[in-house]
Design a protein that fits this description.
This protein is α+β, with helices and mostly antiparallel strands. The chain is built from 4 helices and 9 strands; from the N terminus they run βββααββββββαα. The N and C termini lie far apart (34 Å).
């Protein structure tokens, strides 16, 4: 699969999808753009969406609550929980509650190569059906679009 704009999208199993992209910013700025609410509001979600961050407690067990406002006026109130954080290299968090519809984990890996950053975002589902459901709701395009927006936003992050 090709995510466009230099992004590689792979499905190594029926329960996971991996998005990989090279960014020009250093890992510290990519990590900051990912966890700082003042930056997250500008890139999270598909193109055309805006966000209201209600809470962003970036620590293991911390909660991130964000309302994504769709261009059609629909609000999507989401809850994430941070599971593991290794600044500025890795984040692991979950969407929703295990065993309930909409649950999945997101693993973000940030590595530096020759002055650029390779960003890998791995979505992990409990079943092939959950993965297919996420894809059917526009998850592939939504996450690809978010990463395009991140690429634009990360250049505005100050060290």
């Amino acid at each position: 699969m090709n995510g466009g704009k230099g992004m590689l999208v792979e499905q190594p199993s029926n329960e996971e999808i991996v998005f990989t992209r090279v960014l020009s910013a250093p890992p510290e700025l990519v990590f900051k753009a990912w966890i700082d609410p003042k930056h997250v509001v500008n890139w999270w979600g598909p193109k055309g969406f805006t966000n209201t961050v209600k809470e962003m407690d970036v620590r293991p067990g911390g909660v991130w609550r964000v309302v994504m406002h769709g261009p059609d006026g629909t609000d999507y109130d989401t809850k994430w929980m941070f599971l593991e954080i290794e600044k500025p290299k890795r984040l692991l968090y979950q969407h929703g509650e295990k065993g309930k519809p909409g649950y999945f984990r997101l693993e973000v890996t940030i590595t530096e190569h020759s002055g650029k950053t390779t960003l890998s975002v791995r979505t992990l589902f409990d079943s092939p059906e959950a993965c297919d459901s996420w894809k059917g709701m526009g998850g592939l395009d939504g996450l690809s679009s978010s990463l395009d927006r991140l690429d634009e936003q990360v250049m505005k992050v100050e060290q």
